[in-house]
Amino acid sequence: MPSYTAPVKDMQFLMHEVLKISEADIPGYVDLDAGFTGAVLEEAAKVAEDILTPLNAPGDKEGCRLENGIVRTPEGFKAAFDTLREGGWMALDAPEEFGGQGLPYLMHTAVNETFVSANMAFNMYQGLTHGAVSAILAHGTDDQKARWLPKMVSCEWTGTMNLTEPHCGTDLGMMRTKADPQADGSYRITGQKIFISAGDHDLADNIVHLVLAKAPGGGEGTKGISLFIVPKVMVNDDGSLGARNAVSVGKIEEKMGIHANATCVMNYDGATGWLLGDLHKGMRAMFTMMNEARLGVGLQGYAVAEAPIRTLWPMPRTGCRAVR
Ligand SMILES: Cc1cc2nc3c(=O)[nH]c(=O)nc-3n(C[C@H](O)[C@H](O)[C@H](O)COP(=O)(O)OP(=O)(O)OC[C@H]3O[C@@H](n4cnc5c(N)ncnc54)[C@H](O)[C@@H]3O)c2cc1C
């Protein structure tokens, strides 16, 4: 089994000798002394080295599978996800009022660098949730924040980002998914999205999809697009889970690499959704999540590039032999 060693010393050196973060005039940084950041990073290193690394290669080999409409993640992922959730690792920088630890984004980034190096596919399940939380924080009503954020911050419910459709990726103005307004203020969402990271899985009780769709009266192109909160399972007024929403997985996309993260085709067949942010201003709201996803993809790039120099693989048993 490979062994990964997290770059705690390097991170500490950068944070305190180069950047001198605890002297920076940035909210929350004054508390980030070397003792504190070192303690957090040492604990994160244990999680990355002992829990996530051993699941990486076997998880990619096993991959995800679709069984009776539900995506099953590789063996060990659920237990590891529960362990990280219980340890509060997925809520480091979320606001305390929603159950987070209120630390600066820097700490989330540093910890995630080690988690991604250890197991990128695993970390994507919570990474997308982090972005969805940011979008709801920035654009949600007080009621929406109260309803969705506490469970998403804790990762009891995870989140997704739904832009891409079979005929449109970059050029989102061609989007066909539509949102029909209902008398009770909700919308019926109908359409198909593809390449949805963590679109479905068995790690959380609910999945909160943030879906771009066109509501009537918005005009052509990206101007007519709005953003909607569409849960996999409906949530009752008391916060308990209700019936399944009309959201289903069409298939798991076949792609090169990241097999342990389920990239899904998602079908919305008149699913119930609620507007997030302003009507016809969905691109603006989604960009809160997309901008975070861009930072996340950058982090994935260097964390994966760095992983080989921090990972030792056992030597093959055969070794060299003379051949005559
Ligand atoms: C592993 C993985 C995970 C993903 N996860 C998600 C996710 O969670 N949610 C999600 O919504 N999507 C996701 N995607 C999809 C991703 O966002 C799209 O691949 C991306 O938007 C590009 O779309 P496309 O692949 O259709 O390429 P295209 O849109 O076909 O683009 C191909 C090239 O054509 C150019 N191009 C396209 N249209 C025009 C035009 N009109 N004029 C000039 N040039 C043009 C583009 O700039 C690009 O260079 C994921 C993809 C992958 C591979």
Q: What does it look like?
A:
The protein is globular. It has two domains: 3-136 and 288-312, Acyl-CoA dehydrogenase/oxidase, N-terminal domain (Butyryl-Coa Dehydrogenase, subunit A, domain 1, Orthogonal Bundle), CATH 1.10.540; 157-282, Butyryl-CoA Dehydrogenase, subunit A, domain 2. The chain is 39% helix and 23% strand. It has helices at residues 8-18, 34-62, 77-86, 105-139, 142-153, 282-310, and strands spanning 3-4, 65-67, 70-72, 157-162, 178-181, 187-197, 206-214, 225-231, 233-235, 241-244, 247-252, 263-275, 311-312. It is of the alpha+beta class and 324 residues long. Helix 1 packs antiparallel against helix 2 (34-62). It is built from six helices and 13 strands. The mean pLDDT is 95. A hairpin with a 5-residue loop joins strand 9 (233-235) and strand 10. The two termini are 33 Å apart. Strands 4, 5, 6, 7, 8, 11 and 12 form a seven-stranded mixed β-sheet that branches. Strands 1-13 form a two-stranded antiparallel ribbon. It has a two-stranded antiparallel sheet with strand order 2-3. Residues 161-164, 169-171, 195-197, 255, 258, 263 line the site of flavin-adenine dinucleotide.
Secondary structure elements and pairings:
Elements: E1 3-4, H1 8-18, H2 34-62, E2 65-67, E3 70-72, H3 77-86, H4 105-139, H5 142-153, E4 157-162, E5 178-181, E6 187-197, E7 206-214, E8 225-231, E9 233-235, E10 241-244, E11 247-252, E12 263-275, H6 282-310, E13 311-312
Parallel strand pairs: 4-7
Antiparallel strand pairs: 1-13, 2-3, 5-6, 6-12, 7-8, 8-12, 9-10, 11-12
Bound molecules: flavin-adenine dinucleotide.
Flavin-adenine dinucleotide is lined by residues 161-164, 169-171, 195-197, 255, 258, 263.
